[in-house]
Amino acid sequence: MFPRKLKSEREAMKDYDSSCPVAHTLTVKEMSPDDQPRERALKHGCKVLPTADLWAIVLRTGLPGKPVTEMCRDLMRSCDNKLFNLERMERGSFMKVKGIGTTKALQIEAVMELIRRYCGETVGNRVKIGCSRDVYDVMRHEIGNLPHEEIWAIYLNRRNEIISKEKMTRGSAVASVFDLKKIIKEALLRDAQGVMLCHNHPSGNTMPSVDDDRITEKLRKGCESMDLRFLDHLIITASGFYSYRDQGRF
What we know:
Layout: H1 9-19, H2 37-44, H3 51-59, H4 68-77, H5 83-88, H6 91-94, H7 102-120, H8 132-143, E1 150-156, E2 162-170, H9 180-189, E3 194-200, H10 210-225, E4 229-236, E5 241-243
Parallel strand pairs: 3-4
Antiparallel strand pairs: 1-2, 1-3, 4-5
Helix pairs in contact: 3-4, 7-8
């Protein structure tokens, strides 16, 4: 008799793989109702859900073998489980998480923008500015946590009520372009009586730079020449602010 031919290593591994049970990743629908974000929210309210599960309700679908709950946990892990960090992320960073494409990235951006707008709303028709803290409360959710610089102008009437607030320029992580003509032009178009300037420092440092001093003086002179009140210039971060007026520099 001929000796039995030994199986190759590849054939042996194939037999081994076929004899082992295949691990199955549960889809959200296959989970217990107590583990499904939507069912838990319906039963107990959204407040009981961790942040990742709230995102799962918003984003709805994952990938084959990767349920949306797992994808959203990966998303929150990518920002150390803090919405504060998620707000600073760019669209490309969202899309590095497996399962998040353009549509889901836009959904995330839309939710973060809704949060900012909600935080910026106040009761009543117009916000009245009485001190620098009032300006900070209006603008910190708008620009305080951005990863790049933005310069905003706030236009006020005679009663120091906000007529409008407008983004003038968007810059990089360290600087932005100052456009005096645009700020003055918008003030005249809105028949504003007062102007306030705000910009953020992504570094978190509230202290003004030499360039900050320069644009403050430039706008002060520009407003003076047009009989506009230049009320203050604030440097805003997520945790605090610097006011030129409060520091006696007006």
